[in-house]
Design a protein that fits this description.
Elements (H helix, E strand, L loop, with lengths): L1 H21 L12 E5 L7 E5 L3 H7 L3 E8 L4 H7 L3 E7 L3 E7 L6 E3 L2 E3 L1 E6 L2 E6 L7
Amino acid sequence: MRTIKLAAILMIAAAVCAAAVSLPKRTAFECGQSYTFYTGSSSSNCRIVTAADNAALVLLTLGEVRGEATTYTRLDVAEFLSGVNGRVLFVEELSDSVNYYCAADLPYSAELYGMEINLHISVRDDGVTVASPIIFGGY
């Protein structure tokens, strides 16, 4: 009986280890004030799921993740770009923000103006939002 219990415990432990290895390792960005996932459709009609805490755990519960975003109070854009091997492809300046559309080593991409974009950085007076591939919804 003891041998059966020990074997069952070892099998469960092995299953937990195998599950942990097969799960996604982490989110695309270090979590800022909140973390957003874009699921389902790969367009602006996607479902938006926001996690206040534990973004990595929320990610495990979602299917068909097509993009991710987070917001920071402040961000050194040049340092951030260096960390994701990014380069700015074009910039849009609006009345309330400056938006950088970039190519970087990130898992998602979208075509915009005939270019493959996989990082969007929106700098505003009240904070900075980064997303891969782009920020969907309002920003």
